[in-house]
Amino acid sequence: MEILIPITFFIMIGAIVLVPQYLRTQERMRTRALLKAAIEAGQQLTPEMINALSIPKEGGFRLTADASLLIGLLLLASAIGSFCLSRVLNVDALMGASAMPACLGLAFLGMFFYLRKKTA
After folding, report:
1. CA–CA separation, 88 and 75 (whole Å)
2. Higher pLDDT pick, 62 / 18
3. What whole-number distance in Å separates Cα of residue 51 and Cα of residue 24?
4. What is the distance between the alpha carbons of residues 70 and 111, in angstroms, rounded to a whole number?
5. What's the pLDDT tens digit per position in 68-79?
């Protein structure tokens, strides 16, 4: 039963990495099938149509100053919470683990100040 936890963790990491790649591959295959069907039907393909089908759509996450501030504050809050929990439970390993979200939170706060000056 104890082996189930690490196995589940690695399966989850694999799914997070592999599922988006699989979905992108399926989208590319559907695009190629659409182009092939259009060519076989004798339809005229314009350069605009080919560019519209081949260029990936913009829709990814874009880091803004507000988003970096929110992420930084959430990470700092989780670091403070895990630090307080480590002091209450007297577990030093948890105190060391709270350093990671603290460093990431400080990095995101630094990005907030950088992006705020850049956009102003």
Report:
1. 20
2. 18
3. 17
4. 11
5. 999 999 999 999
CB count, 10 Å around CB of 40?
A: 8
CB 75 within 8 A of CB 108: yes
Q: Find where tokens 């605009």 sit.
A: 48
| Beta carbons of 72 and 116 less than 8 angstroms apart | no
115 within 8 A of 65, measured Cβ to Cβ: yes
On the question of pLDDT at 61 being above 80, the answer is: no
> CA angle 40-42-47, nearest 5°?
100
Residue type, position 9, single letter? F
Q: List, in order, residues 6 or more apart from 115 with CB less than 8 Å away.
A: 63, 64, 65, 68
Domain limits of the chain? 1-60, 61-120
Q: Which two tokens stand for residue 56?
A: 């990936």
Residue 64's CB is within 10 A of a number of other CB atoms, namely 14
**93-112 pLDDT, tens digit each:** 888 888 999 999 999 999 99
